[in-house]
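Worked Example 4.2. Consider the chain below.
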Amino acid sequence: MKKEELIDKIKANNRLLNAVAQEMYLDNSLDIRTRDYYASNITSVRQNGDQIIQILDEEGIAE
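Applying the procedure from the previous section yields the following structure tokens:
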């Protein structure tokens, strides 16, 4: 898999995470602690994806 394909997949995952986060906050059945817990996990996954993109760019991996 090429670097560009990996980056595209990570960006697609981040868009999906954004959609999940929006739906989660619209779901009034979740208490605030549960929403904050899930939001924290979503943020961590998103940050990990951003770090992977940065590493791929810096190292030139999978070009």
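Residues 3-59 form one domain. DSSP finds two helices and no strands in the chain. Compare this with Example 4.1 before moving on.
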